[in-house]
């Protein structure tokens, strides 16, 4: 999954000797401090954003390495004419309990870049957006791949907000100066091959017709009814399991039965019901049904 996240320029100036040595690793001819303009960018962090997503803290060092040497462009236009800067160093920092990547970037002090440098110095151009790719997105509530469970970003379950955690970085593409970033600090604009990455709810809400919205609501009601029926089946299976005394606790049985698919759960419940009926046949309520008669009743037989 490709990711674009907003970030910001945090410092700028002329490179020192150590910085210049790192910059010259990327230049074909040695540059002098007077030829180079440096600035630092705060990239990805591990805090939830307005899209209820965040990078996994363990992913930041990997991303930091991937971003090193990547180019800086404008408006995510992947063309050579729009290349204006390059990242020459990265590091992961932690401030106030927040871990983030700080990238050191450079551009040439040319006539073409003069206006951009003035805008950076003047605080006009300070928002940038970064593009990268991650292999997995995990639900913070249950730990399953996001989209495979019933939890949805921004919803609260048993007091815990659902966050989509971006994990396992695959690649870092670029950072880009943008007019309006997707978010204040860590804006997100997800993209996947062939289109925008979003849930079905988000897609229909954004682009669907009223009829599609109504259809989705009906499907959600049916799905909720199906989940309730399944929960009832699991509870029934647990009750029978406790009756048969498998030697497991109620919690263990519920966890085991919940892992079964619908067909397996139905078959197991039927088998356990049959076994329970054989072991514990129901007692007849009427004495006559047992083939015996009360001694007092026999006096009235003619």
Strand order of the largest sheet: 1-2-6-5-4-10-7
Rg, Å, rounded: 32 Å
Unreliable spans: 180-197
How many helices? The count is 7
The proportion of residues forming helix, as a percent range, comes to: 25-40%
Strand tally: 12
Largest sheet at a glance? Answer: 7 strands, mixed, barrel
Residues in β-strands, percent: 25-35%
The SSE order reads: EHEEHEEEHEEEEEEHHHH
| Straight-line distance between termini | 89 Å
Shape: elongated
- What's the mean pLDDT score? 79
Q: Helix/strand/pairing class, anyone?
A: alpha+beta
Description:
By secondary structure, the chain is α+β, with helices and mostly antiparallel strands. It is 32% helix and 28% strand. The strands form three sheets. It has a seven-stranded mixed β-barrel with strand order 1-2-6-5-4-10-7. It has a two-stranded antiparallel ribbon with strand order 8-9. α5 packs across α6 and α5 runs parallel beside α7. The chain starts with a strand and ends in a 23-residue tail after the last helix.
């Amino acid at each position: 999954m490709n990711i674009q996240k907003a970030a910001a320029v945090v410092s700028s100036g002329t490179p020192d000797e150590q910085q210049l040595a790192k910059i010259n690793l990327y230049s074909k001819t040695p540059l002098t401090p007077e030829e180079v303009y440096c600035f630092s960018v705060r990239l990805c962090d591990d805090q939830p954003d307005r899209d209820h997503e965040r990078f996994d803290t363990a992913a930041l060092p990997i991303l930091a390495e991937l971003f090193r040497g990547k180019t800086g462009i404008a408006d995510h236009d992947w063309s050579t004419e729009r290349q204006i800067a390059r990242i020459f160093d990265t590091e992961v920092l932690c401030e106030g309990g927040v871990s983030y990547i700080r990238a050191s970037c450079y551009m040439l002090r040319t006539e073409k870049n003069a206006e951009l440098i003035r805008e950076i110095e003047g605080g006009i151009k300070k928002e940038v957006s970064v593009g990268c790719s991650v292999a997995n997105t995990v639900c913070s509530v249950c730990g399953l791949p996001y989209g495979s469970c019933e939890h949805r970003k921004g919803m609260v379950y048993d007091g815990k907000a659902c966050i989509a955690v971006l994990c396992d970085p695959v690649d870092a593409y670029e950072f880009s100066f943008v007019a309006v970033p997707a978010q204040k600090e860590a804006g997100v604009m997800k993209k996947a091959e062939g289109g925008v990455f979003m849930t079905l709810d988000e897609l229909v809400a954004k682009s669907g017709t009223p009829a599609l919205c109504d259809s989705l609501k009906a499907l959600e009601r049916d799905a909720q009814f199906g989940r309730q029926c399944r929960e009832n089946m699991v509870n029934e299976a647990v009750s029978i399991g406790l009756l048969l005394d498998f030697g497991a606790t109620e919690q263990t049985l519920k966890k085991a039965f919940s892992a079964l698919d619908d067909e397996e759960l139905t078959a197991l419940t039927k088998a356990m019901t049959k076994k329970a009926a054989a072991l514990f046949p129901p007692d007849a309520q009427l004495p006559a049904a047992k083939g015996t008669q009360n001694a007092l009743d026999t006096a009235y037989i003619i």
